[in-house]
């Protein structure tokens, strides 16, 4: 990884910041720094609620969000008068992570960052956010691949409407454990599904 970046992310999370990163584009694995333990990896989806075919994927992905053919502000440079601001469609997990970052900012504003810190402790802030993303703040289309694209697609409205967890639910929860819990939750659902399929199939 990048020199010192992993330590900087760990420090930021311990100080009450929520750290997210794009899972990656046009490669089949989650890239740094999204693959760092204390970083929330975000994959990209399209308007049909299926993963963008250029999105990185893997067990480290926690959540997905729109990232294919989204409108973004950019510049057209080949003009006589110099760079000209325009809107155009782009693809990428960078745009997906921007959606989740925006939802995180709304969530902090909705509940009050200082109030959340007082209730849970600043080092648990990211863990609480992850807990709500994994339990309430997403929707899961049919045939969703949880093993590679996280618990589902971000649902900002559901996230903001979700009741905060009890302190006891996250008392021993670190951001690392919260990320592991996301992986464990979807792995457990996958194993239950597979077990049921085998029973139905008589194997």
How would you summarize this macromolecular structure in one to three sentences?
With 203 residues, the chain is of the alpha/beta class.
**Tally of helical segments:** 8
Distance between the first and last residues' Cα:
44 Å
Strand order of the largest sheet: 1-2-3
- Which structural category do the helix and sheet elements fall into? alpha/beta
The share of residues in helices is: 40-55%
Q: What Rg do the Cα atoms give?
A: 18 Å
Strand content: 15-25%
What's the pLDDT, averaged over the residues? Answer: 88
Oligomeric category:
single chain
Give the SSE layout.
Blueprint: H1 5-14, E1 20-22, E2 40-45, E3 61-66, E4 70-76, E5 84-90, H2 93-111, H3 113-120, H4 125-135, E6 138-139, H5 146-149, E7 153-154, H6 156-161, H7 167-170, H8 175-200
Parallel strand pairs: 1-2, 2-3
Antiparallel strand pairs: 4-5, 6-7
Helix pairs in contact: 4-8
Describe the 3D structure.
The protein is an alpha/beta fold. 43% of the residues lie in helices and 16% in strands. The protein has eight helices and seven strands, in the order αβββββαααβαβααα. The strands form three sheets. The chain has a three-stranded parallel beta sheet. Helix 4 runs parallel beside helix 8. The longest helix is centred in the last third of the chain and has 26 residues. The protein is globular and about 60 Å long.
């Amino acid at each position: 990884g990048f020199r010192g970046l992993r330590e900087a992310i760990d420090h930021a999370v311990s100080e009450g910041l929520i750290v997210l990163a794009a899972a990656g584009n046009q490669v089949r694995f989650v890239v740094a720094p999204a693959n760092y333990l204390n970083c929330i990896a975000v994959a990209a989806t399209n308007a049909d609620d299926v993963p963008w075919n250029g999105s990185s994927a893997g067990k480290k992905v926690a959540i997905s969000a729109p990232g294919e053919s989204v409108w973004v502000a950019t510049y057209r440079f080949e003009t006589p008068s110099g760079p000209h601001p325009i809107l155009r469609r782009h693809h990428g997990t960078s745009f997906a992570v921007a959606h989740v970052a925006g939802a995180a900012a709304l969530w902090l504003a909705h509940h009050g960052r200082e109030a959340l810190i007082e209730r849970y402790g600043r080092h648990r802030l990211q863990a609480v956010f992850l807990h709500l993303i994994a339990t309430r703040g997403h929707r899961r289309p049919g045939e969703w691949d949880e093993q590679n694209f996280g618990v589902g697609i971000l649902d900002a409205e559901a996230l903001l409407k979700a009741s905060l967890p009890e302190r006891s639910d996250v008392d021993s929860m670190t951001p690392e454990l919260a990320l592991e819990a996301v992986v464990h939750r979807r792995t457990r659902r996958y194993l239950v599904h597979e077990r049921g399929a085998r029973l139905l199939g008589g194997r």
